[in-house]
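dude i think i finally got it to work??
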Amino acid sequence: MKTVLIVVGKTTDPHFAAGIEEYVKRIRHYMPFDIEVVPELKGAKNLSESEQKEREAEMLRKVMAPGDYLVLLDEHGQSFTSMQYAAWMQKRMAASPRRLVFVVGGPYGFAPGIHQMAREELSLSKMTLSHQMIRLFFVEQVYRAMTILNGEPYHHE
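look at this
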């Protein structure tokens, strides 16, 4: 099973980019993992919130494949502790979807059609976090889950 994080727009902050790169390298020790970037919309300031979400949805659909197990990272999704998330990941990996795909949407979230395509929605925090930060937090949690599942000492409980 391959795990993919799809994000809208590049990570522009060099500190976040370096942290993300480090955790992606660590994750790849345990499983295939990639980040796919969907370009930010051009002229987004001239679009309404719903128009932006629909255009982003069109771009997201182009990088999704039949058989993907789609999980949206959304503040209204289910919340887990790190231990619960590790158990959740273990179940998903055991179910062996072709690709386990997580998506961070644009600034206004997801269009209704993307919500309908999703199998699940997860929240990393009830607080609003920047799209740059959420990427770093997410890859750190994936790495943490892998160390928990492998009985390694990274996580302390």
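Residues 68 and 99 are 5 Å apart (CA to CA).
im so relieved honestly
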